[in-house]
């Protein structure tokens, strides 16, 4: 497997590990294998084939896909018909990473040109989404025009939109006709009384509505939107913002309701609340949930709607893999006036991913089986943090990590739990102690961190905080590495000697 030599833009690379490392830097292998020889496209046994076809390359709808595929948001829809106490739509804020923030507002024509330019340079691109910075359906004319322009040149890209649902029933047939297979609805309550603490007003039928009237109308329209989309075989991801003391416990009921109505995923997100964001909640001191509180709520929803745990709460102009944002590389002053689409990089990348996925799944299954054979079933689970730039591998220097992916491991397997964001430790190649303190707080409850490289000083500081940091598994698959580390700690002494 690793002896294969693959040509990559004129450079010979002698292993899958090296290929993955090169791809993480934006390169794609030259085309040369058929889809049948590059791995099976079969999906999970419990998922219908037509559903798997919709989600397998969508980084938001498939946890596996988010290791390999990128999304792009274009900010063409600035108008909004509701006000949320957690939202403040801001422009030219390159350093803020949260929904509603953009650096440039685009026309549909500018957006289409930018999408083609990104598709030529980012082979991982599989999804185009419109998430505002207002409401993509309330600004439907611009949203529709953008999708139509892009589809003419890039027919294989998946189309997504995000909406609060207030205006959506009026356009649901057009959404379905345009083959928009994925819609995100933000639903924070199914009790209008709770909604009054979240939404100061809505704009409905030419009039601003407030209080219980506004919340009731919004609730009814959101439920109607969900019903209509599901009836048209559109996959719906429901986003809910967890607001401690307001809707945190109520989200259990939201999860139950949206499952009953057929939502594909439920994404419970932490409130982002800081005074500098200028939101009502930020200015009045409303706190967001801790990582422990968020995990507890997500776990309590077991048996309800399937949960998305890898959301990054992206900007409305985000570009790249989840967890990264290359938007500043593609501002309009850097996009050519005339651009034509070249599919070669994306085609070749997809062929590589098909093979890599099969390789990774097989390796993970083997690792789980080995762990089950060598570690007692009642051994306590542990949380392990991973530094990764994508590709499902441990391929990032600890000091360069802006976020950590958190996995839970026990004798039964390895499970992705969440991600935790922290300021990257290294700035200009030099570690900063106060940032390392932030990282340590971020990694509360984590026993170990696996990375491609780490310096002695941060390693020792982490060790003093009870976190083992190792680089022994650099560029290996995440699941196999986490399993191997767990076996190293928990296998009987004779087995640990063999592993070492």
Supply database-style keywords.
500 residues; alpha/beta; seven-stranded mixed sheet; five-stranded mixed sheet; 15 helices; globular; disordered N terminus; disordered C terminus
Topology of this structure?
Blueprint: E1 6-8, E2 11-13, H1 16-23, H2 49-55, E3 70-73, E4 82-83, E5 90-91, E6 101-102, H3 108-121, E7 125-130, H4 140-153, E8 158-163, H5 172-177, E9 182-186, H6 192-195, E10 201-204, E11 207-210, H7 211-231, E12 235-242, H8 251-260, E13 265-270, H9 280-284, H10 291-300, E14 319-321, H11 344-374, E15 382-386, E16 403-410, E17 413-421, E18 426-427, E19 430-431, H12 433-442, E20 448-450, H13 456-464, E21 468-470, H14 478-490, H15 493-499
Characterize the structure shown.
Helix 3 (108-121) packs parallel to helix 4 and helix 11 (344-374) packs parallel to helix 14 (478-490). By secondary structure, the protein is an alpha/beta fold. A hairpin with a 2-residue loop joins strand 16 (403-410) and strand 17. The strands form six sheets. It has a seven-stranded mixed β-sheet with strand order 13-12-9-8-7-3-14. The chain has a five-stranded mixed β-sheet with strand order 17-16-15-20-21. Strands 4-10-11 form a three-stranded antiparallel β-sheet, with helices on one face. It has helices at 16-23, 49-55, 108-121, 140-153, 172-177, 192-195, 211-231, 251-260, 280-284, 291-300, 344-374, 433-442, 456-464, 478-490, 493-499, and strands at 6-8, 11-13, 70-73, 82-83, 90-91, 101-102, 125-130, 158-163, 182-186, 201-204, 207-210, 235-242, 265-270, 319-321, 382-386, 403-410, 413-421, 426-427, 430-431, 448-450, 468-470.
């Amino acid at each position: 497997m690793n002896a294969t030599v693959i040509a990559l833009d004129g450079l010979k690379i002698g292993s899958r590990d090296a290929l993955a490392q090169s791809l993480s830097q934006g390169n794609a292998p030259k085309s040369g294998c058929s889809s049948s020889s590059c791995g099976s496209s079969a999906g999970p046994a419990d998922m219908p084939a037509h559903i798997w076809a919709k989600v397998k390359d969508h980084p938001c709808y498939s946890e596996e896909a988010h290791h390999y595929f990128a999304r792009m948001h274009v900010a063409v829809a600035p108008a909004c018909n509701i006000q949320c106490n957690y939202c403040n739509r801001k422009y030219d804020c390159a350093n803020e990473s949260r929904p509603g923030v953009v650096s440039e507002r685009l026309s549909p024509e500018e957006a289409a040109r930018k999408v083609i330019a990104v598709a030529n340079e980012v082979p991982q691109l599989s999804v185009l989404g419109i998430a505002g910075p207002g409401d993509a359906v309330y600004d439907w004319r611009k949203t529709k025009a953008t999708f139509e322009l892009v589809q003419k040149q890039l027919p294989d890209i998946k189309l997504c939109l995000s909406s609060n649902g207030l205006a959506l029933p009026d356009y649901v047939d057009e959404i379905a006709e345009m083959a928009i297979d994925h819609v995100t609805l933000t639903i924070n309550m199914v009790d209008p009384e709770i909604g009054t603490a979240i939404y100061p007003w809505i704009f409905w039928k030419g009039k601003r509505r407030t209080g219980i009237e506004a919340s009731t109308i919004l609730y009814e329209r959101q439920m109607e939107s969900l019903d209509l989309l599901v009836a048209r075989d559109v996959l719906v991801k429901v986003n809910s913002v967890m607001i401690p003391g307001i809707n945190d416990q109520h989200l259990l009921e939201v999860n139950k309701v949206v499952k009953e109505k057929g939502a594909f995923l439920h994404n419970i997100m932490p409130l982002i609340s800081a005074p500098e964001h200028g939101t009502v909640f930020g200015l009045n001191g409303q706190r967001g949930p801790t990582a422990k509180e968020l995990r507890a709520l997500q776990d309590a929803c077991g048996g309800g709607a399937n949960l998305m745990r890898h959301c990054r709460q992206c900007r409305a102009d985000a570009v790249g893999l989840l967890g990264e944002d290359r938007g500043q590389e593609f501002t309009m002053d850097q996009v050519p006036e005339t651009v034509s689409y070249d599919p070669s990089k994306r085609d070749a990348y997809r062929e590589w991913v098909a093979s890599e996925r099969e390789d990774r799944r097989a390796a993970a299954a083997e690792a789980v089986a080995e762990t089950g054979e060598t570690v007692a079933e009642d051994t306590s689970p542990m949380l392990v943090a991973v530094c990764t730039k994508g590709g499902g591998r441990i391929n990032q220097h600890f000091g360069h990590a802006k976020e950590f992916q958190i996995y839970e491991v026990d004798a039964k397997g390895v499970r992705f739990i969440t991600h935790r964001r922290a300021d990257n430790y290294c700035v200009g190649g030099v570690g900063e102690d106060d940032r390392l303190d932030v990282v340590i707080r971020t990694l509360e409850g984590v026993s170990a961190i696996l990375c491609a490289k780490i310096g002695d000083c941060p390693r020792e500081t982490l060790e003093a905080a009870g976190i083992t940091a190792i680089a022994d598994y650099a560029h290996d698959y995440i699941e196999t590495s986490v399993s191997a580390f767990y076996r190293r700690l928990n296998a009987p002494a004779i087995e640990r000697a063999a592993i070492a």
